[in-house]
Inverse folding.
């Protein structure tokens, strides 16, 4: 091998080894690298007990309830398999909506209620103007309407 | 007609070529920036959920893409310099580092500005954000390491190793949103298509191209200064009119 090829081989081998090392470390720390646990993981007791952790998923549609004081909120976080009831007192971010992504920091109590100290909204990768969102909603409604055989009564 | 490409791998000839090339990248960059910002602010519609705050992506996404891309190119030049012992390759790597660091900083900064109103937090230690922060530190480390070694040839070698090893971080940044649960959303632009409105895409791509051209123009301008600095004792620099 010429010195040039030798240097090339060293670099390739070095990058390969470092990649392997980093890969193994990240694989071993998989749960620590992930920002949050899903409700299924919490249900399977993979989340830390009695300590703060983050739980993430979608806000279950129809689950958001505000108490009289206007600050305390109850809602469910779901990954469509398991749901986790959450209680939170504080100001919610603007993007917090039913059916949208959310990440909450806190811990579970004995009754498996999650007491959140911080609630963050998770945005998805879809960017569209309001008209497009309306169009999608309308399309979904008409789909749902056509799926139901009974037509709406005419109220005019 | 055969062009001798190796002719331009000599700093003395590349110096002149780079000088001639700069306007061809700098002017289109300025024009495309203007067009991209115009589309971004006046043509692209508001977002249904985030309203106006989403417009930060027009600079955030190009800056993030380029911060990763520049690093790979920098590491590539560093590797070429290490393998072929070409002085110009190492100089190019050194010339690209500050621009890469700038884009990494812009990416983090604009991301924080967007994160506060949208997520509810300036910063979270999720995999995407943390690995991008590491990228910024790698750039700064590269610049610092290169500056701390007196002999430029040894500085090239040491910092090239750092750049090459650090390139392992780039795929981690890119795939972090797929591999782990992160607060940061997935990519809106994928090889399979985009999940964005057309005018929003146009603004983003125009600014991406503008940033790209800016990077090339800045790289060439900076490499010219580096060539002058390093070759200060050579005959051709002493004969150079503009260096006097």
């Amino acid at each position: 091998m010429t010195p040039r090829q030798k240097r090339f081989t060293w670099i390739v081998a070095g990058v390969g080894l470092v990649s392997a090392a980093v890969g193994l470390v990240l694989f071993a720390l998989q749960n620590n690298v992930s920002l949050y646990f899903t409700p299924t993981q919490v249900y399977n007791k993979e989340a830390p007990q009695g300590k703060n952790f983050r739980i993430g998923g979608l806000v279950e549609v129809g689950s958001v309830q505000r108490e009289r004081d206007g600050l305390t909120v109850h809602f469910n976080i779901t990954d469509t398999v398991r749901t986790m009831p959450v209680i939170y007192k504080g100001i919610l971010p603007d993007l917090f909506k039913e059916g949208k992504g959310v990440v909450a920091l806190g811990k579970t109590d004995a009754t498996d209620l999650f007491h959140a100290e911080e609630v963050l909204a998770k945005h998805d990768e879809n960017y569209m103007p309001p008209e497009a969102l309306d169009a999608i909603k309308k399309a979904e409604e008409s789909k749902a309407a056509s799926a139901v055989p009974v037509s709406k009564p005419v109220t005019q | 007609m055969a062009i001798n490409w190796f002719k331009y791998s000599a700093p003395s000839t590349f110096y002149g070529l780079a000088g001639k090339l700069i306007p061809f990248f700098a002017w289109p960059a300025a024009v495309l920036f203007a067009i991209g910002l115009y589309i971004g602010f006046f043509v692209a519609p508001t977002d249904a959920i985030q309203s106006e705050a989403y417009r930060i992506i027009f600079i955030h996404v190009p800056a993030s893409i380029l911060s990763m891309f520049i690093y790979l190119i920098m590491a590539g030049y560093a590797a070429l310099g290490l393998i072929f012992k070409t002085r110009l390759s190492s100089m190019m790597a050194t010339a690209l580092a500050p621009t890469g660091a700038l884009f990494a900083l812009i990416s983090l900064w604009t991301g924080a500005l967007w994160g506060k109103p949208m997520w509810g937090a300036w910063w979270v230690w999720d995999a995407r954000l943390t690995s991008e922060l590491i990228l910024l530190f790698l750039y700064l480390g590269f610049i610092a390491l290169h500056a701390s070694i007196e002999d430029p040839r040894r500085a090239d070698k040491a910092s090239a190793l750092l750049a090459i090893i650090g390139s392992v971080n780039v795929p981690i940044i890119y795939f972090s949103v797929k591999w782990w649960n992160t607060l940061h959303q997935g990519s809106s632009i994928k090889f399979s298509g985009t999940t964005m409105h057309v005018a929003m895409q146009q603004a983003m791509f125009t600014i991406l191209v503008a940033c790209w051209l800016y990077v090339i123009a800045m790289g060439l301008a900076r490499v010219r200064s580096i060539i002058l600095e390093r070759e200060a004792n050579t005959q051709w620099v002493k004969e150079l009119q503009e260096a006097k």
Chain B has eight helices and two strands.
